[in-house]
Specification:
The complex is a heterotrimer of chains A (322), B (346) and C (200). Chain A has 322 residues and is an alpha/beta fold. Chain A has 7 helices and 18 strands. Chain A has 3 domains: 103 residues, Beta Barrel (Elongation Factor Tu (Ef-tu), domain 3), CATH 2.40.30.10; 110 residues, Rossmann fold, CATH 3.40.50.80; 86 residues, Ubiquitin-like (UB roll), CATH 3.10.20. The chains are: A alpha/beta (322), B alpha+beta (346), C alpha/beta (200).
């Protein structure tokens, strides 16, 4: 394992298609040593080079935290995306060397829960995989409720059923097996925790159902698919400290545009969740399109802060403090 | 590096503990200025020089004796100096791995670690330990993982759990603690366990330091220094044993302060732990009496000024109200009022 | 001189209806009954989802049982001592479901020991409110003999566990639900700090 600029060099040991859309990549250290340990729910940022620069996509680690001889990530092919996942699917081969960042956990398990309930949709199951490996060691009870579209999308779920038995329940859309979240969260013992990872509608349904049963926010955890970067309309931004004005193209995030122009902004998740890249807005003539999960509603309304990793602007002038 | 160990020192009763000149010179002197006040003195824990800041976790000539003193204290009062909440087991394994890997890479002549999957083989030639165990399975070790490894480590160790945007004391081994009770502090949140520290909340530093630490990432440790004074080279100065050591405070005079009064320097290299997401606060203590300090004239001059000007509330909190004047008077012989040498001390 | 000038103490809430709850447990002791009654006034629609737990143990002698009996609630459970109330609370929480809200009102010792139970069942700050009532008599933990003393009002007092003269430090542990006390004349036997009434 070599560390340069805080990144790890890993070799792609294996690539498997687990569904028509998802490929699983097994990554090992280039020197055969152990990779850094991590906790269930962690992700790694993969640096994916392309013609005009580098995509930095975060993927959940799905392997066991207690086996650091290899990492596994699942990459879903996003046709309408910016190309990072397409490159992973089409241009990366077994034996290739990739650069990744050390694991970061923005979706950790509660250590005090008396029962863990997981709700997942499709590729949202990936962070849960590593969390279950951790829970098995800890011996805390859990249930997984996983919704998939059809038989060919069920392979990750079937692996979990083989591993954990009745604790994992699969719902197949093609068989009209509906996952009713309001039933899952009803009459659960005090000290239960709910984890949701899936599409926006599923997250909202889970939050609403849990609230209706009297759950409080401290027991509800969710991770949106971190759609890395952001797409939208072009805009320009001035970085106050250097005075540079840079153009953010439609398929770039502000963070990526700044990096491409040689400016560094601190970041961790690149998905609007962790707060690391929070930046003050010094001047604004127009409006900010906030798409992060970090800033409070008041902060968003005030337009005095922006998360450059995901949020954009519709404006004639934007000056930020970096 | 080769260390001349002093394996038969005592930290109690006859107090045969003493520093070699080399050990004095390598200590992390904690006073950057003539006046002391809390500051955000957190810096990246990167290897610096050949002294106490070289290794990830420093060991020195007192290693063997200090481990023996810890064992004595633990045996004397079971359940008092090592406590862990049940949900801290992952963090315990994290800590065991971090200490073993750090010691083995910094001191390969004394420690080795071989991993075969989860089957680990650990040797510690300084304490004649050669154990094979299963990582993750507590039943394969003679103690819980944290107690097992910290019985072989210098300094106190506290594991803090991150929850609800703050840090809680989840586990600790503390046989060298400065007048606090581990059992009492367990379960306290960041602002609670700092509650007794005077003048701290007012500075706003507590909030800023917490925010900084919550961002601490694996592989990017930070360190800070803290200090206090104590009478005699005694490690076990817990709140519980107060009646055993507090009377010593009355024995200090301006004549004997050089021998009796010890500067306790605490080096704290903080690490985020990978599986548990906990943060470990090691408190690695260096004991130097004022005579040791005076072997470096710049240090003695600096320390004279620090103690003389120190805010009375801090003096009370650190527990040397009764002998501050005696220590200042003893140190005054090294302070000619000139400034040129003092710069070197920082 | 020993450390006495330390400032720290739990910060309490004021009881008010917590949003979203589908079952409410309102537990109080002695003069804490007043806050219970005020809370019930503020949540008239939830009476049938509300269970009251009241202990008549009181340092000040105040008793609100008669008024509490007038309220329309699902159940009122009465206990002769705080300890019995907390033991029953433990049983109730063990069978409780998500959606439960807990309200505590009474002495610091009562709230602290009830919170030990609530924390055990992983109830968080968005599910529990605590309102202090009555005087700030303290529950004290002796660091030397590991014993607890209830209703301490003096800075310096004799430990019933080990007979040492102790000085109370203004430092509170939620895990032990108590303040800490250490030997008062540890430096010079017989040389005690000045007697002082605690800020009760």
């Amino acid at each position: 394992m070599s560390l340069s600029n805080g990144t790890l060099n890993v070799r792609v040991a294996r690539i498997e298609a687990v569904t028509p859309e998802i490929k699983r990549f097994t990554l090992v250290a280039t020197d055969g040593a152990h990779l850094p340990p991590f906790s269930g729910g962690s992700n790694v940022v993969v640096l994916i080079p392309h013609e005009n620069g580098t995509y930095r996509n975060a993927y959940s680690l799905m392997s066991s935290p207690y086996d650091s001889s290899a990492y596994q990530i699942a990459v879903r092919r996003v046709e309408e995306g910016r190309g990072g996942s397409l490159r992973m699917h089409e241009a990366v081969n077994e034996g290739d060397v990739l650069e990744i960042l050390r694991p970061v956990n923005l979706f950790p398990l509660s250590k005090h829960a008396r029962l863990h309930l997981f709700i997942a949709g499709g590729v949202g199951i990936t962070p849960v995989c590593s969390q279950l490996a951790e829970l098995r060691l800890r011996g805390t009870p859990f249930e997984v409720h996983l919704a998939v579209r059809g038989a060919e999308h069920a392979r990750l779920g079937e692996e979990l059923v083989r591993e954990y038995g009745d604790a994992v329940r699969l719902y197949r859309n093609d068989l009209d097996q509906r996952l009713d979240i309001s039933v899952v969260v009803a009459a659960r013992p005090l000290g239960s925790h709910l984890y949701v990872c899936g599409p926006e509608s599923m997250i909202q349904d889970a939050i609403d159902s849990a609230h209706a049963q009297g759950w409080t926010d401290s027991h509800i955890h969710y991770e949106r698919f971190l759609e890395q970067g952001s797409v939208g309309e072009a805009f320009s931004v001035t970085l106050a400290r250097s005075g540079a004005t840079i153009e953010v193209s439609p398929d770039q995030s502000l963070l990526e545009a700044a990096e491409a122009a040689g400016h560094s902004i601190p970041y961790l998740c690149r998905g609007g969740a962790c707060g690391e890249c929070e930046t003050r807005v010094l001047e604004l003539d127009g409006e900010i399109v906030h798409t992060d999960d970090w800033l409070s509603d008041e902060d968003k309304a005030a337009n005095t802060k922006i998360m450059p990793c995901v949020s954009r602007a519709k404006c004639s002038r934007l000056v930020i403090d970096c | 590096m080769t260390i001349q160990f002093r394996p038969d020192e005592t930290y109690r009763d006859d107090y045969t503990y003493a520093n070699s000149p080399e050990c004095i010179a390598r200590a992390p002197f904690p006073f950057p200025d003539d006046e002391y006040m809390y500051s955000m003195n957190l810096e990246p824990h990167v290897s610096v020089g050949d002294g106490a800041l070289k290794a990830i976790f420093d060991i020195d000539e007192h290693y063997i004796s200090e481990c023996r003193d810890r064992a004595i204290t633990l045996e004397k009062d079971p359940g008092m100096h090592y406590v862990s909440a049940p949900h801290m087991m992952e963090a315990q394994w994290d800590l065991l791995e971090l200490i073993m890997e750090s010691y083995a890479s910094d001191y390969p002549e004394y420690f080795t670690l071989e991993k075969d999957g989860t089957r680990w083989h650990w040797t510690n030639t300084l304490l004649n330990i050669d154990d094979t165990f299963t990582f993750g399975d507590p039943s394969t070790l003679p103690y819980e993982p944290m107690e097992y490894i910290t019985r072989q480590a210098q300094g106190d160790w506290v594991l803090q759990e991150e929850r609800d945007g703050t840090l809680y004391w989840g586990a600790g081994i503390a046989t060298q603690r400065a007048d606090y009770s581990l059992r009492f502090n367990l379960g306290m949140a960041w602002h609670e366990f700092h509650g007794p520290v005077p003048l701290l909340k007012e500075t706003g530093m507590l909030d800023r330091a917490l925010k900084f630490l919550l961002r601490l990432r694996c592989g990017h440790p930070v360190r800070r220094l803290n200090w206090s004074l104590t009478v005699n080279p005694r490690l076990d100065v817990s709140a519980e044993s107060l009646p055993d050591w507090a009377p010593d405070r009355t024995t200090v005079t301006a004549e004997n302060a050089g021998k009796l009064v010890y500067l306790r320097i605490e080096l704290q290299p903080l690490h985020r732990l990978p599986r548990s997401n906990a943060i470990v606060f090691p408190i690695r203590t260096y004991l130097l009496n004022l005579e040791d300090i005076a072997t470096n004239p710049a240090w003695a001059k600096r320390m004279h000024r620090v103690l003389k000007s120190l805010n009375q509330e801090l003096v009370d909190y650190k527990g040397f109200t009764r002998y501050r004047d005696a220590a200042v008077e003893w140190l005054s012989q090294f302070d000619d009022g000139q400034d040129e040498e003092v710069v070197k001390a920082g | 001189m020993l450390i006495t000038g330390i400032k720290s103490r739990p910060v309490y809430d004021q009881l008010r209806p917590l949003p979203g709850g589908i079952r409410h447990l309102v537990a109080g002791q002695g003069s804490g009954g007043r806050a219970m009654l005020r809370l019930l006034d503020e949540m008239p629609e939830q009476g049938m989802q509300t269970t009251l737990l009241y202990s008549q143990e009181s340092f000040s002698g105040l008793d609100f049982l008669a008024e509490l009996q007038q309220r329309q609630v699902a159940e009122l459970r009465v206990y002769p001592s705080n300890q019995e109330l907390v033991a029953d609370l433990e049983r109730i929480l063990g069978n409780a479901r998500m959606g439960t809200r807990l309200y505590l009102s009474g002495s610091e010792s009562f709230i602290g020991t009830a919170m030990q139970v609530a924390t055990h069942y992983d109830m968080n700050s968005d599910e529990v409110l605590r309102e202090h009532a009555g005087s700030f008599v303290r529950r004290i933990w002796c660091v030397h003999c590991d014993s607890y003393t209830e209703n301490v009002t003096q800075r310096v007092f004799q430990c019933p566990g080990c007979n040492a003269m102790l000085v109370v430090r203004d430092h509170y542990s939620r895990r032990l639900a108590a303040f800490q006390a250490v030997k008062a004349d540890a430096e010079v036997p017989g040389e005690l700090p000045e007697a002082e009434e605690l800020d009760t």
